[in-house]
Structure formats: C-alpha cells, structure tokens
C-alpha cells in the first residue's frame, strides 16, 4: 500500500504517448457531434465498449476514426489541453508526445495544428507547471513516400517551436522502415532526432531497420529484440532506450498476459527501458497504472521504480542542463516522499 501511494504521488516523465490516442471517450463524442462525424457508437457506454478493440487491425480502425473527428484548430487545442491536465493530475512533469499531422491536413493545416497545440502547451505550463515536447510522425502506410517529405520538411522548419523529434508509426507488417530512409535522412541531416516504432507486431528486422535505415535514437516498443541475441548485444552496448508500454503490448497481442511480458528479461539483459502508456484510454490505462501493474505482477521495489523514472529523464530529448535540473528535483521529491511514507 505504501509503495502504491509512492507511485501515485511520485514525479514522472513519459516518453511514448500519442495525443490522438489519449482522447477520452466522452471528448470523442463531443468532437464527433460538433463536427458531424458518424461513429459506430453514440452513447458513452457504447463508446467505451467500442474502445475495447479485438486486434491490431481494430485498433488502427479506431485510431483513424478518432483522427477523423478532429477537424478544427479548436479541436486540437481541446484535446491537447485535456491531455496536459491528465498528465498534471498524475504528476507527469514532462512528456514527449506523438501526433500524426498528415492525417489531419485536409481539415487543418500543419501550422494551425501546431499553433493550437502550442497554445495549450503554454497554458498548461503556466497553470500546471508541466511541459511537453512534440514528435510528429508518419504512418508506415503513407504512399507515395514522396508525400512524407512535406511533413519532415515542415517538422524541420519548426524545430524550436515545440517539435523535438520525428517518428514513424502505423502497421509494421509489410511496411518496413527502409521505405522511409530518405525521409529520415533529411531529419538527421537537419539535427532532428529519429523516434520510430519498431519490434512490436514485427520482429527484429524491423528494429534493425529502424536503427540502420532511420538512425533511431530510441525505439518505440522494441520488445521483440529478444528474438535476436546479436541485436540485444548491440542495444545493450549502445544503450539505445526502449520505450516499453506493457499494457499496450498485452492488448495488441505482443504478450499474452502481463505476467508473460518480457519486461524482466529486457532488464536481465541490461537493456535501457522506460515505462509508458502509449494510448491510455484505448488500453484502459494511465502511466500511473502502468507502474502499479508492473509492481503488482513483477514485485519491483521502490529503487527499481525510481530507476525507471530516472531512465525516462536520461532518455528524454531535453537539453542536458534541463535533464540535470529535472533529475535533481525528482531525487529531492523522492527523498521527501520516502521519508513521509516510511519507505
């Protein structure tokens, strides 16, 4: 019980969470109604049932339906503001937030999307003292590939305006990272870090592709790296962080149950792991819940939980001075909480 209280109150960072995937069912109903978008569910109860997807294809269906409900800059400001409020309620001081601008470009220009999110970002910093870095990403299904150039060029132009990295998401199967080699080369040449998803529904080839073709500085998920001992050795040597989202992995069938999740094996191999929620309401979780669940299943102690949090700081794309300040503040809060709770 004491460790549970510590987890609920401790300061946190989150490095892998999707803005669109963080929209609560109630908010989605509001967006659908005001933008006259027909959804498969009309009541909050039906919406929550619909959110309980059955496989990765169903997940993608839901995700794109959610994106279709976002039609105006005000919608972006609403969802970003609500997201930041939820992060603040969990004492998540800093988040690196993925969103997919191309999915919305027919309704809202890239610049207008970013301006709306930045308005919410500035307000949340003032109101809650929480901050975010933005990671626009591409869907692996984007064709022709040349269309991705306008997204990466726009992201490069907005480095310093909230954008901190460039990502790749969407279905891995039949969509290898190498398709987007030239796109990510543009990002790398401009100094924009690469944060692709890999090694979730596809195996080690996807992770190698993310590293070799896309110059990944972190891997979104990456849990299937254990299928290749050479890859494990490489990730350990280079200490390339893995953004692990345990409940997401279970919901999407990467692991059968949380008890069978490879998290302990990743740690045993000396890999650099952070804990994340991915698409919280879609997986019926929060970052706080992720920590509570792994403690319950794997019996992690307070020192291990603190190390996961510190890993998040170290793996973040914050400037070095800000990382150091954040770590100093977190360590002080940890000590205060431990003393208060008798840990």
Structure description:
The structure is a single chain. The chain has 343 residues and is α/β, with parallel strands linked by helices. Helix 1 (2-9) runs antiparallel to helix 15 (320-341), helix 5 packs parallel to helix 6 (110-128) and helix 14 (302-315) packs antiparallel against helix 15. It is globular. The chain has one domain: Metal-dependent hydrolases (TIM Barrel, Alpha-Beta Barrel). Helix content is 51%, strand content 12%. An 8-stranded parallel β-sheet has the order 1-2-3-4-5-6-7-8.
Rounded average pLDDT: 96
**Could you spell the SSE succession in H and E letters?**
HEHHHHEHEHEHEHEHEHHEHHH
Distance between the termini: 11 Å
Query: What does the largest sheet look like?
Result: 8 strands, parallel
Radius of gyration: 19 Å
Task: Sum up the overall morphology in one term.
Answer: globular
Strand fraction equals 5-15%
Please identify the top-level CATH class.
Alpha Beta
The count of domains is 1
Please write out the topology.
Layout: H1 2-9, E1 12-18, H2 25-34, H3 44-51, H4 56-68, H5 73-89, E2 92-99, H6 110-128, E3 131-139, H7 147-157, E4 166-169, H8 181-190, E5 194-198, H9 204-212, E6 219-221, H10 229-238, E7 242-244, H11 246-251, H12 263-268, E8 273-275, H13 287-298, H14 302-315, H15 320-341
Parallel strand pairs: 1-2, 2-3, 3-4, 4-5, 5-6, 6-7, 7-8
Helix pairs in contact: 1-15, 5-6, 7-8, 14-15
């Amino acid at each position: 019980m004491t460790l549970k209280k510590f987890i609920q109150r401790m300061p946190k960072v989150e490095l892998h969470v999707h803005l669109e995937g963080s929209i609560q069912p109630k908010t989605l109903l509001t967006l659908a109604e005001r933008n006259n978008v027909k959804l498969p569910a009309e009541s909050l109860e039906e919406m929550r049932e619909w959110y309980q997807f059955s496989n990765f294809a169903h997940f993608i269906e839901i995700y794109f339906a959610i994106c279709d409900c976002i039609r105006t800059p005000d919608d972006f400001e609403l969802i970003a503001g609500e997201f930041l409020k939820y992060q603040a309620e969990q004492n998540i001081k800093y988040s690196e937030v993925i969103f997919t601008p191309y999915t919305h470009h027919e309704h809202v220009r890239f610049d207008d999307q970013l301006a709306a999110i930045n308005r919410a970002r500035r307000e949340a910093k003032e109101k809650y003292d929480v901050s975010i870095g933005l990671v626009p990403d591409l869907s692996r299904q984007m064709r022709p590939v040349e269309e991705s150039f306008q997204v990466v060029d726009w992201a490069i132009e907005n480095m310093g305006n909230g954008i901190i990295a460039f990502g790749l998401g969407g279905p891995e199967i039949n969509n290898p990272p190498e398709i987007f080699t030239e796109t990510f080369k543009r990002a790398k040449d401009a100094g924009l870090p690469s944060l692709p998803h890999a090694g979730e529904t596809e195996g080690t080839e996807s992770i190698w592709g993310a590293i070799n073709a896309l110059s990944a500085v972190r891997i979104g998920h990456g849990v299937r790296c254990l299928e290749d001992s050479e890859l494990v050795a490489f990730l350990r040597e280079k200490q390339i962080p893995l953004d692990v989202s345990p409940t997401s992995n279970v919901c999407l069938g990467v692991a059968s149950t949380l008890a069978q999740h490879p998290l302990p094996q990743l740690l045993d191999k000396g890999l650099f792991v952070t804990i994340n929620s991915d698409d919280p309401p879609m997986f019926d979780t929060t970052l706080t819940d992720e920590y509570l669940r792994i403690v319950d299943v794997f019996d992690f102690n307070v020192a291990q939980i603190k190390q996961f949090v510190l890993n998040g700081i170290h793996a973040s794309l914050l400037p070095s001075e800000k990382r150091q300040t954040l770590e100093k503040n977190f360590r002080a809060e940890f000590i205060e909480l431990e003393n208060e709770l008798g840990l």
